[in-house]
Amino acid sequence: MLSKKMNSNDTSKQRLSNGLNLEHCIQCSCELDRKSFLERGYLQFVTRTSSVSCWRAQEWLTHCLPPRNSLEVYNNLCLSALETKQFNDSIRQVELDLHRTYPDEAYFSDTSGGYFALRRVLMAFSKYDSNLGYVQGMNFIAGALLWHASEVDAFWLFVALMEDYELRDSYLPSLPGLSKHCQIIQLLTLEFLPRLHRQFAEHRINCEMYAAEWCFTLFGSVIPVREMINVLDGFFNEGWIFFYRMVIVLLQCLETRLLEARDPIELLSPLKICHKSQKEWKQFVSVINEGNKKFDWKSLIAKVSDIELDKDYIKYLHMNFNLDTAQFSLRNNK
Predict the structure, then answer these.
(1) Exposure string over 144-156, b if 16+ CB within 10 A, otherwise e
(2) What are the Rab-GAP TBC domain coordinates in residue numbering (predicted)?
(3) What is the pLDDT of residue 187?
C-alpha cells in the first residue's frame, strides 16, 4: 500500500533524493515562435525560463481530463512510499534508463532539473499504476512531454496517453497492444507497399522486429526531442491513426533501400537505428532522405496527412481486439 505517514525527516530525505529542490523548466521555444520577428530577435538575448506549460502542451491537455486536485495527487504520489517487488524492479530500470533518455540533451544529464523531473514522473507513474509499473520506452515519451509541459502537466498527459490512448496495452505482459498495432501495420503495408510486404515475407521479417521500439517510444527513440512536438501534436489529435500513417511514410521513404536488401540483416539494418547519439539519428535521416540536406522531421511528418486510411475500419479493429488472446474477434454479419 501507498504509505502517506511520513515524518518531516523522511519527507526531507525524499525531497533530496528525488531532486525536488531543482525546478523543472520547459525547454521548448513554442512561445517564442509565436512572437513577431522583432520580438523573437530581442527575446533570444533574454534568459527565458518558465515552469508553465507551453501553448502546445496546453492544447494537448484539452484532450485529457486530469483530476481537479492534480497537483495534490501528483505530490502525494511523489512523496508516498511503495514497498513491492514490482516497484523495486521499476526503480532499478528507471535508474538505468534515465541516462539513455535523449543523451545528447544537456537538460537530461544527471545534474540538471530535467533528469530529476523525469525521474519523479516515471516513479510517480510506477506508483499510480502499480500493476504495470515502469517499462522501457516510457522514458522517451515522458521526456518529450517534459520538454513542453510543467512537471505536473507532463505526468497527467503521460497518464492520458497510457489510459485514454491505450498505450498501456503495449506494455502489458505478452505485449498484446504491440501485437494489435503490428497486425494492423502488416495489413496497411500489404495495401500501400505490396512489394515491400512481399520482401518482408520472403525474409521472414515480422512487424515486431522493426516497429516495436517505434511503438514503445512513439518514435522517441528515433526522432530528437526537439522534433517530437510534431509527433505529439499528431498523436494527441489522431491517436493511433497518426501512428500508422507515420509508419507507412517511414517505410515509403526507406522502400528503395529495403527492396535492395539480400538478407534479413540488410533488411532490418536501416530500420533498427536507435536514438543513442546525434550521429546515429543523422544516419537514419540520411537513409530516409537520400541525401537531401534540407530535410527536417516537420516536412516528413507533413506527408503523413497524405496517407488516407479507413478510420472507421481501424476503429472497428481496435474495438474488437482481444487483449487476452492478442487476436481480433471479428464477426461476420449475416
Answers:
(1) bbbbbbbbbbbbb
(2) 64-239
(3) 96
